[in-house]
Specification:
Layout (H helix, E strand, L loop, with lengths): L1 E10 L2 E11 L4 E5 L6 H8 L7 E6 L2 E2 L5 H7 L1 E4 L11 H8 L6 H14 L1 H5 L10 H13 L5 E5 L7 H16 L3 E5 L3 H7 L2 E6 L2 E7 H5 L2 H7 L3
Parallel strand pairs: 3-8, 3-9, 6-7, 7-8
Antiparallel strand pairs: 1-2, 1-4, 4-5, 9-10
Length: 234
């Protein structure tokens, strides 16, 4: 479904991604784990068109997207839940969700999808007229996920969904991620909490200083002594 081949990204003289290749098959949850600054967020931002690679190709459903704009990539079927949630704090919950569907013209279907988001996150329905900035961290994360789903993505990119959340809420968010996947959305997940990410992932990649150093099934990497020592506190 998604394929990155030999992607390089530079920020001026900094070589942020070095020859990155990875695949995401339809229906999978694939996770990318690594330390802070390893290149995880840069990888997602490159896929979603916010950063242009200096080398390599990105294909989605057989079509090259490495030269496409961010709106074209959303239209193609990829949504991004960014690191730090990036909701619009001075707009209402409903307005934030409507912005997720800004490329769509099917008003009736948009309304149906809004109701589906409210069914999945009842707290958002209760707070639909509140400014998004008044929500708690967990509620803002739910809003960021709901906003991305409003574009009806086939592939959902998720960047650090557990960041800053209490452990109970982390479990709730990951249950929601599994449920979204089970209902047919493919997921590429960037997550510092390697334990929980590997527990739900079909496959995983480990990135260090801009390079993929290891790949395997979620289970294999969770049981790897190397990964336990580096990322799982083993």
């Amino acid at each position: 479904m998604l394929e990155l081949n030999n992607i390089d990204v530079h920020y001026g003289v900094i070589h942020a991604l070095k020859n990155i290749s990875l695949k995401v098959e339809k229906g999978e949850i694939v996770t990318l784990i690594g330390a802070n600054g390893a290149g995880k967020t840069t990888t997602l931002r490159t896929i979603s068109g916010l950063i242009k690679p200096s080398k390599g190709t990105i294909t989605f459903k057989g079509q090259r997207i490495d030269g496409a704009s961010a709106p074209e990539i959303v239209k193609a079927g990829i949504s991004h839940v960014p690191e730090g949630r990036r909701i619009f704090p001075d707009m209402t919950v409903r307005e934030n969700l409507e912005l997720g569907a800004f490329l769509r013209k099917d008003k009736d279907e948009i309304q149906k999808d809004m109701e589906l988001v409210f069914a999945r996150f009842p707290i958002l329905k209760n707070r639909s007229k509140q400014n998004a900035g008044t929500l708690s961290g967990g509620e803002q994360q739910m809003l960021a996920i709901g906003r991305a789903l409003m574009a009806r993505p086939e592939l959902l990119l998720m960047d650090e969904p557990s960041m800053g959340l209490a452990p109970l809420l982390v479990n709730e968010i990951f249950s929601i991620i599994k449920e979204i996947n089970e209902q047919g959305t493919t997921i590429l997940l960037v997550e510092q909490n390697a334990n929980i990410a590997l527990s739900i992932a079909d496959r995983a990649y480990v990135i260090e200083t801009g390079s993929i150093v290891l790949e395997g099934s979620g289970k294999e990497l969770a049981n790897s002594e190397q990964i336990k020592k580096a990322y799982l506190g083993g």
